[in-house]
Amino acid sequence: MKFTHLLAAAVxxxxxxxxxxxxxxxxxxxxxxVDALNEKLQTPLTESALEVLSHSTEIExxxxxxxxxxxxxxxxxxxxxxxxxxxxxxxxxxxTTGLTLEYxxxxxxxxxxxxxxxxxxxxxxxxxxxxxxxxxxxxxDEAAANVFAPLEFExxxxxxxxxxxxxxVPVNFCRSDEETAAP
Length: 183
Known about the structure:
- By secondary structure, this protein is α+β, with helices and mostly antiparallel strands.
- The chain has helices at about 5-20, 30-40, 45-55, 75-80, 105-110, 140-150, 175-180; strands at about 85, 95, 115-120, 130-135, 155, 165-175.
- The chain has a domain at about 70-180: TolA/TonB C-terminal domain (2-Layer Sandwich).
- It is elongated.
- Keywords: Signal.
């Protein structure tokens, strides 16, 4: 094949490549945000991943309309049967410091919300252990677990020890009103 034929084929392919790029479905996410993220991510976001994530931009636990499905880990259901929910009948130990919630960066940039439940035990020494999370999307689980890992607890009034198993606490990752108003 002559060089001119190769050049002609390459020139003809340029508009097709542009058309393929233009047809990429960003599922409502800002193309410039997705493209910038994909340049930095080790595994770029695919169209199918964006489709899944697009169903978590206004979730019910954050005041939106999108229903969620939790993804519990192995052993979750057995522990859930004996859990003690925050705000329930069981008086729970008191944390000695405030909670620190770190939103997963990629989800925050995309405006993806998440809902989790964290379950953990509190030792007699006030430390957390056996932390498990059940979340609406992968990636929120580690962030939810990190909220409780460094916490220490003291006994509630009238208790001798902070020790208790299977404390269940909801953890929601919601966008602020300013973020939800932005296009």
